[in-house]
């Protein structure tokens, strides 16, 4: 990485961690394209997963009192299965295929919103959960589908953020383990994650404080703002 890019990357990391801590998801919206641009698609997706996995440990600790283990468990299992499949596909896929997959994942999210799947939340959540895991494992981001799947559980904002954090942690740890075994992640990547630890704590504190002050209505706006952000990325790739 060129030295002049380091401040840009660190700023993107801090912004991603803050948004993720406030909304429960959305970190990949910033982190994946930034790292993919700097390091290449595969390396960027893999490093983003490692950083987000480490950050989710801090987030889960921060929201430890509002982690809905029982309600989120089925979603987590389906997401993990999807992640495993998608991550395995990433290892064997050529760089161009992975880049296209990033675009396709947003097309899927756009169609999900267009069809208004929230009317069938309980029925659609398992399907969206597995699809979010698969797109996350293959393209590095699953925000829209994961958000819709967990929003279907009808949780308040703190428990929803807790569920999103817990689900993201399991998914990102799964990806990190698979990609480390496949040598997509090496020692220097873990060193980068270690350097970013102070950013994880400060950004999580800032994001959680913001979440607790905006109320349910404000969080709903934030949730859909992140969803619009993902849609914006979709439009930008057309």
UniProtKB/TrEMBL annotation:
The keyword Transmembrane applies. The chain crosses the membrane at residues 31-52, 72-91, 97-115, 158-178, 190-207, 219-236. The keyword DNA repair does not apply. GO terms for cellular component: plasma membrane. Its main location: membrane. It is found in: Cell membrane. Belongs to the 4-toluene sulfonate uptake permease (TSUP) (TC 2.A.102) family. This is Probable membrane transporter protein. It comes from Streptomyces purpureus.
């Amino acid at each position: 990485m060129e030295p002049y890019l380091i401040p840009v990357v660190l700023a993107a990391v801090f912004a991603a961690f803050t948004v993720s801590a406030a909304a429960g998801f959305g970190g990949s919206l910033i982190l994946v394209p930034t790292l993919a641009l700097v390091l290449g698609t595969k390396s960027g997706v893999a490093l983003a997963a490692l950083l987000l996995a480490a950050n989710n440990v801090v987030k889960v600790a921060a929201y430890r009192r509002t982690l809905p283990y029982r309600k989120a468990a089925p979603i987590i299992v389906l997401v993990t299965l999807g992640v495993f499949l998608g991550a395995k596909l990433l290892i064997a896929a050529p760089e161009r295929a992975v880049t296209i997959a990033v675009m396709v994942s947003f097309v899927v999210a756009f169609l999900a919103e267009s069809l208004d799947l929230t009317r069938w939340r309980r029925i659609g959540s398992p399907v969206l959960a597995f699809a979010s895991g698969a797109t996350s494992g293959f393209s590095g981001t699953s925000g829209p589908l994961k958000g819709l799947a967990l929003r279907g559980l009808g949780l308040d904002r703190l428990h929803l953020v807790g569920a999103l954090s817990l689900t993201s942690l399991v998914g990102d740890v799964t990806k990190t383990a698979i990609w480390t075994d496949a040598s997509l992640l090496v020692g220097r990547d873990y060193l980068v994650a270690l350097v970013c630890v102070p950013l994880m704590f400060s950004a999580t504190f800032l994001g959680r404080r913001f979440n607790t002050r905006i109320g349910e209505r404000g969080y709903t706006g934030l949730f859909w703002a992140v969803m619009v952000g993902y849609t914006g990325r979709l439009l930008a790739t057309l």
